[in-house]
Amino acid sequence: MFRLAHVTDPHFRTPRGFPGVSAAELLGKRAVGYLNLTVNRVRKHKMDLLEDMRVDLRAQAPDHLALTGDLSNIALGSEWRSALAWLDLSGVAPDAISVIPGNHDAYVPEVLATREFERLFAPYQTSDLDRDGESAYYPFVQIREPLALIGVSSAVATGDLGAWGRIGEAQLARLEAILTAPEVRALTRVVLIHHPPVVHKGGEHRNLRDRAGLAAVLARAGAELVLHGHDHHDERAELPGPDGRKIPIIGAGSASYAGGPERRARYSIYEFEEAGPPRGPITWVSRVHDEATSFFREARREALVP
Ligand SMILES: [Fe+2]
User: What is the rounded distance in angstroms from the CA atom of residue 213 to the CA atom of residue 155?
Assistant: First the structure.
């Protein structure tokens, strides 16, 4: 059996304040985000929950770990370095970790221009199929048999006023080519994307704008599982694949959310039976932080593909 852990939306902060961050950075286009961070997020997202999760992850010892974005709040290098330190101590080897960005990691256009996220997280964004330069950086594909993990970026610089995402025509075309490549098609294909490919909440200011394009690619090319974040709660949907099979689309809640039990800090583990094609059963396990004990416990065990 192969076990894939899925962590999303940890929204890392620096331990105390913002060391090394200039006032210009905070008071520029990030001002509203910074205000929101100090007023709201410090209360809602707790860093000690991420520490408790790290302990649980080490004990669970998954074969692979996927992070689907919003590692930061306002795309600061110091926030990402907190995430890197956490990954270093996760007990999972670098080549068994995949990382993609979320809208908070693309907060302002300067961040996208400097490609700071991609430079910092490069060890977790390697690709086993050739890339065609920076413009074709995403999607990357990591072949970890029996899985092929495909990292898509839907992160665009929406600033303080939006949280929507877009994949773009060029990336969608490459995604279809990857999903249908013979060496990928023979494996269990897991697509990673920050934004939900189906609408769960109202308001186009926070949705994936070209979700119809993604659904069309999935309908033609197929995939065995799509994992996303962004909504900060567990959710399950499906999209039609080729040959009438349904593709499970699963979102996980935020890794650091300090609220009640139904949304409290959590991550998922997917268990793949190593049956090879035709693909074997997939089980979705959800591990949730228990406020009383500070331990994580299994809160869900559900067959996605029987
Ligand atoms: Fe998000």
Answer: 16
pLDDT at 21 over 70: no
Nearest to 31 by CA among 42, 23, 21: 23
For ion ligand 1, residues whose CB falls within 5 Å: 70, 102-103, 230
Cα 24 to Cα 220: distance, rounded to the nearest angstrom: 47
C-alpha 244 – ligand 1 centre gap (Å): 31
Q: What is the mean pLDDT of residues 62-86?
A: 95
Q: What are phi and psi of 67, to 5 degrees?
A: -115, 125
- Ligand 1 center–CA 68 separation, angstroms: 9
Distance 70 CA to ligand 1 centre (A): 6
Name the percent of the chain lying above pLDDT 90.
73
- Report how far ligand 1's centroid is from the alpha carbon of 212 (Å): 19
Render 185-235 in DSSP notation, one character per residue: HTSEEEEE-SS-SS--SS-GGGSBTTHHHHHHHHHHH--SEEEE-SSSS-E
**How far is the centre of ligand 1, averaged over its atoms, from the C-alpha of 166 (Å)?**
12
**Coil vs helix vs strand at 149:** strand
- What is the C-alpha end-to-end distance of the chain, expressed in Å? 15
User: What is the residue whose two structure tokens read 């979700």?
Assistant: 211
Which comes out higher in pLDDT, residue 215 or 275? 215
Closest residue by Cα to residue 149 from 217, 201, 81, 227: 227
Judging by DSSP bridges, how do beta strands 188-192 and 225-228 pair with one another? parallel
174-193 tens-digit pLDDT: 999 999 999 999 999 999 99
Average pLDDT of the chain is: 91
- Determine the Cα–Cα distance for residues 65 and 45; give it in Å rounded to an integer: 21
